[in-house]
Amino acid sequence: MDVFDGGSNGSNRRNITWKKKYNWIGYLILAIILIVIAGLFALQLVTDYIWMESLNFSNVFTTILTSKVLLSAGGFVLFAVSTFFTIYWIHRSYLKYFDSSQLPPIMRKRKVIMMIIFGISAIVGLFGSSIVQGVGWEQALKFLNYASFGQADPYFGLDISFYIYVLPVLNLIIFVLMGLSIFFLLVEAGAYSVFHMYRVSRSAQLHLGMTLGFIGLLLAGYHVLQPFGTLSTTHVNLFQQSVVNGLSYTDDVINIPKAYILAAAAVIMTVWMIIKLVKGNIQTMLTPIAIYIGLVVVGQGASLAVQNFVVSPNEFAMEKPYLEDNLNFTKAAYNLDSMNVQEHPGNNSLDAEMVERNSGTIDNVRMNDVRPLLDVYNQVQTFRTYYEFNDVDIDRYQIDGDYEQVFLGARELNTADLPDQAKTWVNQNLRYTHGYGVAMSHVNKVTPQGQPKYMLKDIPPEGVMDVSQPQVYFGEENSPNVITNSAVEEFDYPSGDENVNIEYEANKGVPLGGINRLLFAMTEGNFRMLVSDQVTDDSQLLATRNIMDRVNRIAPFFKYDQDPYLVVRDDGSMVWMIDAYLSDDNYPYSEAFQGKKNYIRNSVKVTVDAYSGEVNFYAADPKDPLLQTFQNIFPDLITEEVPDDIRAHFRYPTDLFKIQAKKYGTYHMSDLEVFYNREDTWQFPTERYFSEDIKMEPYYTTMKLPGKEEEEFIQMVPYTPKNRQNMIAWMGVRNDGENYGDMFVYQFPKQRNIYGPQQIENRINQDSEISQELNLWSQGGSEVIRGNLLAIPIEDTIIYVEPIYIESNNETSLPEVKRVVVAYGDHIVMEANFDKALQEILNTVDPDSQGDGQKEDEDSQEGEPEKQQDSQAPIMEAEEQLQEFSDLFESYQKALSEGNWQEAADIMSELENKLDEIQSSDGSDNADGPDNPDGAQPSDGNTGSSDSQNE
């Protein structure tokens, strides 16, 4: 028996020993996991700091990190302490109410129970810290550093900064505390329901009473803040909305007084509930809750009644004073309150002298469209499979003393397009590190083949300006991180059968000497970076090379325009310009443009050097209170001194202009009754693109504004009335110098029709000669692209211009400008180029523009009768050509019907060649165009028409 017992005890001891070992192994594994998680988190923080420091933005990183840490600590303390207090009170109440024999043994072990309470409190505290810092760090920094708007709301008389910065923080605090208090109330109610402790235990009653009292105060605070919220919403009750954005009649008469009544009721009802709880009258505790709910229902009912029976029958009269605030504050929120509004007569006054006076505007009329132009750049100017143009942008430059609008794009590197055998680690990380050069072309000139006429082209760039630093290390491409200054020479650009190499000379990368190499090898997950002998202490890591990711990583609190554009600076270096937006959703009385966002400014311009990756944030609108707030938060982030060659290329962002133009389409109405009825709503017109009607986008153009002496770069968009196609107005914004951001509107007469873009498009479609020629081109493997239809205001009149592209139906298509349509008044012509089309228009509307040239032709005809006889020859030749075209077209259709695709394509090529021959002969026989503006009428080979001809 002893032996048996001894054996049994020995076995138990061994099991206990093994269990202890397993426990220690488990603890060790858990510790390793926690250390790894903490280490990875710390590694990310350290490498982020090093990267930010390399760009001189470490203060931004530390400011955000410090605020997050403090908020996390505050949230942890709040949630953990309140949880500890709650559980500890419950435990103490149990010990007082129950006999020790009635409780589980663990509740009598003070050390164990305290460890459990601490553990639960820590878990809840971690959860709370993530909530508080996750939703509040930016609001907290703004709250502590906000700048005043200097404008008060008309109802409460509070500065707008209260609604932008203070009110959201107060609401956040109340909602967080309210949620936490309700959670604790539920926990307490569950704990104290055991044996009905809440009826007998004073400790339980006091605990529940304190929680109820705190909830009552928070509920009262919520109701006190509600009136301020009425200035930023259209809701008047759960079921109805007002026509007013912001305070309405129902809010003023019902909802604001109701909020104060409910705040007082919440306090009174809470006190009532606490008294009933202490007295043990649990059933009567529901009475104040029922009364409070009843008051809420009555308030909603009163709001419904007033809205239905007082406001709706006479809505305009009731809402009139509030509509005025809605109108004025919405204009202020979108910077539309200083709009320069002028009348535009829309006269038919075009003549040769007007064209001569506005030669700068005429010379900058766009003959190319960005959309097909990108395909041309990628086919003609890439040269190697690993080069790519991601975008073609529009800007303006001083070229040989002339102010000229241009297209330009950067030639970036895409290592994904390298041959498979070249996709080695060395090539992708050390050798192929950057793109090269920029292509620039005229907006208003094309080659005889219809291709853009380049101002900068080829590798190395050659043209109208010197590009001293053509390497593109940072751009729009999603380029991987690379290492420069290694033992491997970097490929720069191809030169004949050889490649030119280069060494990176900037110092904005992360130095890979010392421990940095280990840290970033771990962060990159790139073991070769650590062990490769090609990487030296002088090497630099160029990380986050996509410019959008780069600026978002530095300043994630800004919203960035998705269309960055390239700028060639005066010193020949290249930078990317990015527009940053500051917006908010609590501007009083303002109508939202997206979600709840109802205030926006483009207060910051960001540049990223294409070579070094250096980032600069410039103040574009120093008066913006949101910008001033961020300057208070990050004193070293934003620079107010803008270099002249950077400011010269400030471009008003299209996205912001579209938001403002859409808002102005409604908020231009100053008469409140007209505004209320939306009687004069303006909208963007439509235009034809390919075979679809699409909404017209704002576009940049260079023009001389009425009353101004020089051309300037503006962005503009036409307006048409709602559900109508005639042009009612056009809106523009200036981009140059001290006039940057000045907005203006020209309104056309309402008593007569001014052709709108879609009406012009329809008339082009209805023109028999133009439509016949376009239909002919769109057959047999070709496609017609209708480019941007541009409305070009010139003094007191307006002309329309639309380029016509032809491209083949295959992946390697090369769009070419083959014709230009010009429309003016009732006249439409289509010619081989803009100069000819404009001259044809002038010959129609201003016959005197033909001048002495026509008279000389008549005199020569009188003096040479034989030449008059010869003048009949072109007519006979035209008839023969038309018959030849007809026969070829019939052969083409027959080949198509029989499925002879190659034969059809050959016939179509022959047709196109003959059209080109006719155009070429017309260009040589007729001296019209820019070299001879007084030339004769075009021959029949050119297509030109007007409404009078069509009729």
UniProtKB/TrEMBL annotation:
Membrane topology, from the record: Multi-pass membrane protein
A GO CC annotation given for this chain: plasma membrane
HAMAP family: UPF0182
Biased composition (Polar residues): 939-951
Name the UniProt record assigns to this protein: UPF0182 protein GCM10007063_18330
Similarity remark: Belongs to the UPF0182 family.
Transmembrane segments: 24-51, 71-91, 112-132, 162-186, 206-225, 259-278, 290-310
Pfam families: UPF0182
Alphabetic keyword roster: Cell membrane, Membrane, Transmembrane, Transmembrane helix
InterPro entries, A to Z: UPF0182
High-level lineage: Bacteria, Bacillati, Bacillota, Bacilli, Bacillales
UniProt-listed PANTHER family: UPF0182 PROTEIN SLL1060 (PTHR39344)
Region feature Disordered, mapped onto this chain: 845-886, 907-951
Organism of this sequence: Lentibacillus kapialis
Compartments where located: Cell membrane
